[in-house]
Amino acid sequence: MSTDALRPDALALPRRRERSFLRELDRPSHVFRNIGPNWFAAVMGTGIVANALVLLPFDWPAARDLAVAPWALAVVLLVAITAATVVHWMRHTERARGHLADAALAPFYGCPPMALLTVGAGTLLVAPPLIGTHAAVVVDSVLWGLGTGLGLLVAIFVPATMIRRGDLDPRHAFATWLLPVVPPSVSASTGAALIAHLPNHGAQQAMLFGCYALLGISVFLAALMIGLVWFRLIFVDLGPARMVPTLWIVLGVLGQSVTAAGLLGPRAGELVRAPYGEGLEAFGVVYGLPVIGFAFAWMAIAAVITVRTARRGLPFSLTWWSFTFPVGTVVTGTSVLATQTGARLLAWLAVGIFGLLLVAWATALVNTVRIAWTGAAFLPAPVAD
Hints:
This protein is mainly α. 70% of the residues lie in helices and 0% in strands.
């Protein structure tokens, strides 16, 4: 089978064909035939809504209660998509291996670890009143360990595989190439909340230093990838219209790195001797302000390109979830900076961007449900597409 049928844009199909899709799924097992790692983007995009809402720099008592709904939905999606992925690997093993060999889809293996980490962080932020603090810490610890281990594996294996191929062209670079290297920064930001729950000073300090190392892995590898994306935008083209939403993925590593630096700083101030502890705490602001500025600039560029593309036609696909998680990380990054600096402007910017996140999330969710209901979500792209 051609790998074109396995690409992340496989859902960009004409609406007039939707009614015939269910008839094309002649056996129930075919529902799982084209499940790919890109589906976990729905978990990330839903979970970040809950996390971003709780981290908004305002003392809104209802925020945590409202966050329960998207967190619970993210949990359900994580369980369902993980189960579907297991069935996919068991019944369609060759096709699953083909995903790893496909340069377009392999980077999406960065999504499963980020989904685990996002739901784990949400559990600790939202669920203690529901399941108790101890249970929330245990769940988050397990998901953080699984997500971090898998994320490091993906961050090393996928780029190494891309290097070994020798047939990739930098002119064909997509922002999706960033996905494998973002998980370590997500581990760094979500690991900050677990530090206080470790039993002793030595374990807490080791966790702190490990999170800073994870942040460095992600930021420097991502910088290399962002350069390739910029090269393509300037000297080549935008690529297919359905891949334009992936430009927003760049925001993911920017927002997560700012969030991580800001959340780890106060822990460093407590756990690391002077002057390094205070220096790391200050680093959260010194690093965060310029990077969040770059994130706003990239958001504006991506928005202009997206609007121009939408005027010519922007078919729905799972790549539309790129409008959710990356934007959510900008919300969390801006919120953390607002808390650190006390700047009201940053606080209200976080609220405004959160409003955009809600619109993007609702749009992606409704359309994903629509194509899942019609069966379009479970079919490969036609050859003409």
